[in-house]
Specification:
This protein has 402 residues and is mainly β. Helix content is 15%, strand content 50%. The longest helix is centred in the first third of the chain and has 16 residues, at 21-36.
């Protein structure tokens, strides 16, 4: 037979497990009173609180649907950029950038349907675009996503924007993955398709079949210029060592009809990546080499084989401050690049063949990565023989993320 006290403890435990956060606060107050009155011991009350806290509550079961968990998230990034461009040999320099702006405003809804199936919808009103729109299955060491996301191509590109130590991605990454404008390649970033990934021990792998084009309109039915699917594959190793972690591997993307100076003209594009990321203690170094084969990428009669690499080192001086330095170099092999193609927010300048970029800065973690301030100095130079253009200035960002 259970004693009255045992029944009371069982009842209170059940109530706390079912309680909303507000109701749980009220239940804590009740527990404190019961301890004060001598009905429960402090140890018994703490045990009830721990049991309630460690349990996985059902947040919502709307309309008796099979929703086992529902969560909301958001991110706001506000930036300030002050960058000026100087074109060598001319007094007709473009107007400088000196502006505050919202970089990202993400609103996220996630729902789980049992232990294996879930969905994620993330929308950015600032850019009027989706970051994710997925139906996901996660099994034992293997998962499949169906919908809109980035394929696993480009170390920096697939790093969350909330965790970029240099505020913005390098000129090399931007040139390879952002939309084809006759110079950039569009060989990465958002696609609609089916994505698979897995892990066996320290070996990681993945692949995807997607529409070939970088997403502009995710609801589009397509056209004759993009009816051939793109294929992606990646493999590598990741894990921990005595004083840190490591990750390295390679990836490939085969994109029909995405080459040339204008997509959809029957010219193909193949892109390659080799990457590495190693941390030891407070020091982290990461980098990537990117290359591509672009049919008729330089002109109507000449292919292009752009290549580029970037290296980044960071050091955490304390729990609240981390410094970072980064270097990137791009050779477009005659396809051409403007400063604005690689250095975000920079005035455009003229079209040259090569681009070099430097960044030196740091992050102040006010409340971990969820509330932080970042700032740094940016310098970029594009060259083509004797012709050159440079841009320089500061960039800063305030982020809140939950």
């Amino acid at each position: 037979m259970f004693s009255l006290k045992s029944k009371l403890i069982t009842l209170l435990s059940g109530l706390l497990l079912m309680a909303s956060p507000l109701a749980a606060q009220d239940s804590k107050a009740i527990l404190d009173v019961l301890v004060l009155k001598g009905v429960l011991s402090s140890k018994e009350a703490d045990s009830i609180k721990k049991e309630a806290k460690s349990s996985s509550p059902v947040y919502a079961v709307p309309g008796k649907k099979a929703v086992s968990k529902l969560s909301l998230g958001a991110r706001i990034q506000m930036q300030y950029a002050a960058l000026s461009t100087d074109i060598d040999g001319t007094n007709n320099d473009p107007v400088s950038t000196n502006h505050f702006f919202l970089r990202r405003v993400y609103l996220t809804t996630k729902a789980s349907l049992g232990p294996d199936w879930s969905m994620n919808i993330t929308y950015d009103p600032a850019n009027q675009s989706f970051d994710k729109a997925l139906i996901s299955y996660k099994g034992d060491g293997f998962g499949v996503d169906v919908g809109l996301r980035k394929p696993d191509f480009g170390l920096e590109e697939t790093t969350s924007s909330s965790s970029l130590k240099s505020i913005e991605r390098t000129g090399v990454t931007r040139y390879f993955v952002e939309s084809n404008n006759g110079r950039r390649l569009g060989a990465g970033s958002y696609r609609v398709g089916v994505f698979a990934s897995g892990k066996s021990g320290n070996f990681v792998y993945g692949g995807a079949i997607t529409n070939p084009e970088r997403v502009g309109d995710p609801t589009s039915a397509g056209n004759s210029g993009n009816n051939n699917q793109a294929y992606w594959a990646n493999a590598g190793f990741e894990g921990d060592h005595a004083n840190g972690s490591y990750s390295f591997g390679a990836a490939i993307g085969i994109l029909p009809d995405q080459g040339g100076k204008k997509v959809g003209a029957g010219d193909d594009l193949t892109a390659y990546s080799i990457y590495g990321d190693v941390s030891t203690g407070n020091f982290t170094v990461m980098g990537e080499y990117l290359a591509a084969k672009v049919e008729h990428g330089a002109s109507a009669t000449k292919d292009a084989t752009p290549t580029g690499y970037w290296l980044q080192g960071s050091y955490k001086f304390s729990k609240t401050f981390e410094g970072v330095v980064r270097f990137s170099y791009l050779d477009t092999d005659g396809r051409g690049v403007k400063l604005s193609d690689g250095v975000r927010s920079a005035p455009a300048g003229n079209t040259n063949d090569k681009l070099t970029e430097y960044f030196v800065g740091g992050s102040w973690f006010i409340i971990g990565n969820d509330l932080k301030f970042q700032a740094g100095y940016v310098y970029g130079e594009s060259k083509d023989g004797a012709a050159s253009a440079t841009t320089s200035g500061v960039r800063s960002q305030m982020q809140i993320n939950f």
